């Protein structure tokens, strides 16, 4: 029948977004280490690998020719060019995880998430926010930034990102990392109990069975 | 801001149904004892109090005249007459709990739940099922029943109840009581993180704040 219920994956796609500085990368790592049956979806990028980043884990690092070829092959469910570099989510990784009944956690910016919604991708959209405006300012470094332009730019970005949160299914408040991870876990395990995701083993139920 | 997040109630109405013998009463009791901010909604009935039942806890026991007066005052969100006795869910208890930001667990049969859905009551609908057909038969006493008519009647009821599960939001599988209670808890705490139920404390967010 239904296997281990809320403890095993079902091929559900979880989409995680947050303003910069809300701690989404750390939170995603923690969630994946703690929740069985949940895997991170690894994006493709053409930007240079930074120190500490691992190819195939942080990103799939490819060159521009390879990325453009993938675009031509329709292999991305969403992609974007930011400051001249490409970023994209490949369809095949998600299809593969779905086939294996792993749940997938895709960390993506608000524009990428909006594209997934436009394409009616069946996913659970989660937005992470710090507990207050004051904390957000602090984490974004807005309070400590002397440069007025830089300050304005960061505020503008944060404002747009917060405005985008209204299109998500769930809000996770990242007050402490533990509490935020707990909330993520509740959401992921509850979604595994959703009617449409549980295959009922009562197909041939008849009065004479 | 948002208080204790997934640990405190938000005035959400959770509706719990199950076939007879699926263990919904025990499960509801366990969930209420374990999840802070969750209260049981107590139904009204005109049937006689059974041994072990407590007035105001198991049911609000009232006489027929009182019940009919409440019907006339539109005080029920749903009511039904079964074998000559009245059963009903009063609006005031739910309104009161909502005002207090308690979450409410309402244990109700599939017909009652259908009426709530018809009235577009904003609730989270949870259906509890045993893990398999064999276990259901066993728990319903179908296997041990010699009387063919009684057997048919129980099967018919179970079949109708299982068919009704398709209109619910979540399925909880009552394999062990602990696992089922865990699933209930995931669902309740996750719903507390749902976007529409979290009041964001970023109302006056402006670029110059």
Largest interface: A-B, 44 and 44 residues
Total domain modules of chain A? 1
Mean pLDDT over all positions of chain A? 85
How would you write the strand order of the largest sheet of chain A? 2-7-1-8-9
Query: What structural class do helix, strand and pairing data of chain A support?
Result: alpha/beta
**What CATH architecture label of chain A applies?**
3-Layer(aba) Sandwich
CATH superfamily of chain A: P-loop containing nucleotide triphosphate hydrolases
Estimated helix fraction of chain A: 25-40%
Instruction: Describe the oligomeric state of these chains in a short phrase.
Output: homodimer
How many DSSP E strands of chain A? 9
- For the record, give the distance between the C-alpha atoms at the N and C termini of chain A, rounded to a whole number: 18 Å
What does this structure look like?
The first copy, chain A, is of the alpha/beta class. Chain A has one domain: Rossmann fold (3-Layer(aba) Sandwich), CATH 3.40.50.300. Helices cover 37% and strands 20% of the residues of chain A. Chain A is built from 7 helices and 9 strands; from the N terminus they run E-H-E-E-E-H-E-E-H-E-H-E-H-H-E-H. In chain A, the strands form 2 sheets. Chain A has a 5-stranded parallel sheet with strand order 2-7-1-8-9, sandwiched between helices. In chain A, helix 1 packs across helix 7. Chain A is globular, with a radius of gyration of 19 Å. The C terminus of chain A is likely disordered. Chains A and B meet through helix 6, strand 9 and helix 7 of A and helix 6, strand 9 and helix 7 of B.
């Amino acid at each position: 029948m239904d296997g281990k219920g809320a403890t095993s994956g079902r091929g559900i796609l979880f989409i995680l977004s947050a303003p910069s500085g809300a701690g989404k990368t750390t939170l995603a790592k923690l969630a994946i280490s703690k929740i069985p049956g949940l895997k991170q979806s690894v994006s493709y990028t053409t930007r240079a690998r930074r120190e500490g980043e691992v190819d195939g884990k942080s990103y799939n690092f490819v060159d521009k020719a390879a990325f453009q070829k993938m675009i031509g092959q329709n292999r991305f469910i969403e992609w974007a060019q930011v400051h001249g570099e490409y970023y994209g989510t490949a369809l095949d990784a998600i299809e593969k995880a779905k086939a294996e009944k792993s749940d997938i956690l895709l960390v993506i910016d608000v524009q990428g998430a909006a594209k997934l919604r436009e394409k009616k991708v069946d996913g659970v959209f989660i937005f992470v926010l710090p507990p207050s405006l004051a904390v957000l300012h602090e984490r974004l470094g807005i309070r400590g930034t002397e440069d007025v332009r830089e300050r304005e730019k960061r505020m503008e970005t944060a404002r747009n990102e917060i405005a985008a949160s209204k299109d998500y299914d769930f809000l996770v408040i990242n007050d402490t990392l533990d509490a935020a991870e707990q909330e993520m876990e509740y959401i992921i395990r509850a979604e595994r109990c959703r009617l449409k995701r549980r295959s009922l083993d009562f197909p041939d139920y008849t009065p004479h069975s």
